[in-house]
């Protein structure tokens, strides 16, 4: 059986908070550079899986005009966009009645910004839950060729990722009454930065503790002490509690943006990906006034 402690998930996809912030800054900076260089951030995927970038800006004036129209997203706007689509991913997975591990894998895969439907499709393959691209596209009225084209970007991914749900099932023998509530808390947790900062076991314990606060099933601190005494006797409960409190704080700060909240950000993103859409929008707006 695969082991999280020796996994690529642990070695490559668990960060300290400052490193994660730096990665967000670096990704945002790359997008700004691409916008300045090409006048757009849209990257198409050819049938052979290669990436097709926009043409280089040949004229400084043309570059300045396009740049004045297309303003790059700020980091906090990118975070809202990610939060919005992670919520949508869970909606789609619920509609298809996919198991929670598909939701979790999809959200972790989406951290590298693939098309969200491709993320779901790739997660289904990784978790051996077969669904065709045609079926997925038809179910939500999207072109399945987009899913297949973007899939090629995923070929460099690490196949196995871990979510808190299996860990919850492992702990749940002691706390059966907390099962469903804990998994609902884990659903929220997966839409925060916590999966990139903490292990699945820590995420599971944080979800169970939060569920226990509602149902009062066990003395949770004593339960943590019994776990650590059996598995990690060198680590005190207070050390684990610090991690669980940090996860709780991330869940408490979770905001689910509405479609109205996203309207301005989504328009900015469209202009960055396709500057020509700005002119189309202005023409539509002008016609509506006539």
Overall description:
It comes from Cynara cardunculus var. scolymus. Keywords: Cell cycle, Cell division, Cyclin. InterPro entries: Cyclin-like_sf, Cyclin/Ssn8, Cyclin_C_2. This is Cyclin C/H/T/L. The mean pLDDT is 81. Among the domains are: 73-161, Orthogonal Bundle (Cyclin A, domain 1); 164-253, Cyclin A, domain 1, CATH 1.10.472.10. The chain is mostly helical and 290 residues long. The chain contains 15 helices and 2 strands. The chain has a two-stranded antiparallel ribbon. Strand 1 (44-45) and strand 2 (51-52) form a beta hairpin.
Supply database-style keywords.
290 residues; mainly alpha; Cyclin A, domain 1; two-stranded antiparallel sheet; 65% helix; 1% strand
């Amino acid at each position: 059986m695969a082991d999280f402690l020796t996994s690529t998930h642990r070695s490559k996809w668990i960060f300290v908070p400052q490193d994660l912030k730096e990665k967000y800054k670096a990704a945002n900076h790359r997008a700004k550079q691409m916008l300045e260089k090409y006048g757009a951030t849209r990257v198409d995927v050819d049938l052979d899986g290669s990436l097709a970038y926009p043409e280089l800006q040949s004229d400084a004036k043309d570059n300045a005009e396009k740049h004045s129209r297309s303003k790059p997203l700020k980091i906090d706007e990118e975070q809202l966009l990610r939060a919005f689509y992670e919520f949508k991913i869970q909606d789609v997975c619920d509609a298809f009645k996919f198991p929670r591990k598909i939701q979790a894998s999809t959200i972790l895969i989406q951290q590298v910004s693939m098309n969200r439907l491709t993320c779901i499709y790739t997660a289904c393959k990784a978790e051996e839950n077969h669904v065709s691209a045609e079926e997925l596209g038809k179910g939500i009225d999207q072109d399945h060729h987009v899913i297949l084209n973007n899939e090629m970007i995923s070929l460099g991914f690490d196949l196995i990722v871990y979510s808190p749900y299996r860990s919850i099932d492992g702990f749940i023998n002691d706390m059966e009454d907390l099962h469903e509530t804990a998994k609902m808390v884990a659903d929220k947790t997966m839409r925060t930065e916590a999966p990139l900062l903490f292990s699945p076991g820590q995420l599971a314990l944080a979800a169970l503790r939060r569920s226990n606060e509602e149902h009062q099933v066990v003395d949770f601190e004593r339960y943590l002490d019994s776990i650590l005494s059996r598995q990690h006797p060198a680590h005190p409960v207070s050390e684990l509690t610090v991690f669980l409190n940090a996860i709780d704080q991330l869940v408490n700060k979770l905001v689910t943006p509405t479609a109205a909240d996203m309207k301005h950000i989504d328009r900015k993103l469209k202009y960055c990906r396709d500057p020509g859409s700005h002119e189309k929008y202005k023409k539509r707006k002008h016609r509506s006034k006539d």
